Amino acid sequence: MDAVPGTPVVGEVAEVARAAQFADGPGEAPGGLLEAVHQELLARRLDEQIAARFPVGQRLRILDVGMGRGVQTLRLARAGHEVTGLESDPTLVGAAQEALATEPEGIRERVRLVEGDCRDTGVHFLPGAFDVVLCHRVLMESQEQDPDATLAGMARMLAPRGLLSLLVRNADALALGPGLAGDWDGALAALDADPGTDRRGASVRADRLEALTATLAGIAAPLHAWYGVRVFTGWGADAPVPDEGTLERLLAAEDRAGRTDPYRRVAALLHLCGARDS
């Protein structure tokens, strides 16, 4: 099998399992497979987009909106970037602070943690202050039915040629979870309406690729690339992270499927990258 772009060198997969102990999502246990998969896939695609857009070695100014416990915040700081994490949940801010405290001084100096709401980026930061803005899972947890204003606020934070990275729940795949579990009433309900329900039966918010594509165009950060996340692992209960060899093969399959039609269109999550042209 040909190498998939962004595939890590042997040995780096262990970092996925280590990072998963800082599980960001409800229903995803620390150290669980679902968190490990989506964090690793985000890391691969982000690194790929950054490498294609910015000069090698450039220290980027990155804003991680809704950073959770700071998995990507810390990873990007370790890579040499200056990262600001914005999070409204004080418990998660505290968890990120604890994780940051274990890092070397040089990494700690590159990270700033701010407690605040994702809708208030303009309150905390100046327009054009960041090269990259991450908005991962924020819309999934939001009760807002129209995210345009929130996303427009984040886009205003981008410097020229800046990159906006979104991770959202895929509204076009909501019926797959209950359908594969044999819950036909749940599958029919998910086919009929938004929002749908997750694997625990809770109401969830989801977004469609076409709608977000139009939104990104309207906020001057048009869609540059998009990927499916958790094509195969998005539909069952969480599980422990498997041995390294199995995890490498699983990630290779997920990575390739997430870049390939029609598979990426039925992934549980979508990763969209919008980019300013100037």
Automatic annotation (TrEMBL):
UniProt cross-references to Pfam families, sorted A to Z: Methyltransf_25 (PF13649)
One example GO MF annotation: S-adenosylmethionine-dependent methyltransferase activity
Keyword Lipid metabolism: no
Protein name from the UniProt record: Methyltransferase
Organism annotation: Streptomyces inusitatus
Xref: Gene3D superfamilies: Vaccinia Virus protein VP39 (3.40.50.150)
Annotated ranges, domain Methyltransferase: 62-162
Residues annotated as signal peptide: none
